[in-house]
Write a structure and sequence with these properties.
Helix 8 runs parallel beside helix 10 and helix 16 runs parallel beside helix 18. Helix content is 41%, strand content 14%. Strands 2-7-6-1-5-3-4 form a seven-stranded mixed beta sheet, with helices on both faces. The protein is α/β, with parallel strands linked by helices. It has 21 helices and 13 strands. Helix 18 links the parallel strand 9 and strand 10. The two termini are 28 Å apart.
Amino acid sequence: MTDQTAIANEQSKKGTSVQTSTHRVLVVGIDGVRLDVLNRLPTPHLDALAAEGFLTPVEVDADTPTMSGPCWATVVTGVTVAQHGVWSNDFTGHRLDVFPDFATRLAEDGRRTFVAAGWRPLMQAHGGGPLFRAPSRTAYVSPTADTPEAWEHCDEQITDAAARILADAADETVASFVYLGAPDETAHVLGCGEAYEHAIRRADARLGQLLTAVRSRTTYADEHWTFLVVTDHGHVDAGGHGGRTPEERTAWLAAAGPGIGGSAPRPLRHADVAAQAFAALGRHPDRHWTLDGRPFAAAPHAVLLDMDGTLVDTESLWLRTVRETAPRIGTDDLFDVLGRSAAEAAAHLQPLTGGDPNALAADLEARFLTAVQREATPLPGALELLDLLQESDIPAALVSASSRPVMAAVLKTLGADRFRTTVAEGETPRTKPAADPYLAAARTLGVDPAACLAVEDSPTGVAAAEAAGCRVLAVPSYAPIEPGPRRTVRRGLAGIGRQELWSAGL
């Protein structure tokens, strides 16, 4: 095992995080709100969040009972019932010690977390609980009876307690979960009629109180807040749940915050909520957590950029150089040398050209360097992307299979100060398509490669980045590249903003 691989593996075991001291996340769970009912009601605070980001249906997983216990356990742990083992509203037999809630995991990291709820199994050792094992701070107010009126009063007290914490700029809490249960209890007792609709509107007003508390913070302008509002399940018209009808199985999620906007990038699941909470705080999960959920917007801890054909228009110069050296080369062989070093290209071309491979490599290198020095220009969107990374304080690395002299020529065009580190051909034991260059860049930056986004234009470069475990944004130059797991493909760099960057490769 190389030193680079060993360090990357150790980072992945520990989990890594970027410097996100001003990042905060608020998750609000509103129990039992049917999406079709919600869609026809005036809910101004939820609507405003959806306008900033999105509100999307979430289907309860096929194996998950449409009950509060299993659904909320999936929401806050990021794993499904097969892992957390909560199959009903009696939590007995759970595996929450192995798969704890996000507030507990973050508290174990030394981060302040807060949970406010009135449903007893969430907070106390009752019926196999609590779901929230050990957050830094809690507020628990139990309803005096299982009636709509008692639950409304309970939610009011919970909201008041949470708002005090959220408004306190001196408080160092970074992740909060607030539970509102009155809509669910109202549906159980009175069905999904006028009283139920009123309970949903009251829950929206309480959401507004929480958002007002956050925005009243004296430090709010300098903070980056992610808001996630989610329900666990729906109801049948008579008010019950636990079955498999669309009304019961259709939940929803509203999200707003850095990198979130427009519409949900893919169909979302309950398990994605906890994953997104971690991502919003820059916490890259330990792989041993085996989360089922995936974030839908996550700032990369670093962006590792290929050079030729990705940031600068040099692939055409390289292909022209290869054609001049091997005039009889076919299209397949020509594209096969994209993203490769001069030495590897020479080894590939030698059967077509004859002669000494070393001399051939030197000739390719000299011709290409001259062309780059005379003709290289940034590709559309390249400088804007590098500016975005600097504005966002995301480290950028230049990772190329070209030689150091070629890279030095390109850096005069791009600006060397835009990159925290650079890796050229010959500076690692192996070059692309091996993972070594990307592992070396991540090691220098002190980040887990799995939390990095690699930007590449060739299949060779994509193979190298994926071998290192990176998320990938592919912008194909000549050879086609298909989308794949942790790989996003787009036509070019032009128009990339935070939303596109945060969602790439997820």
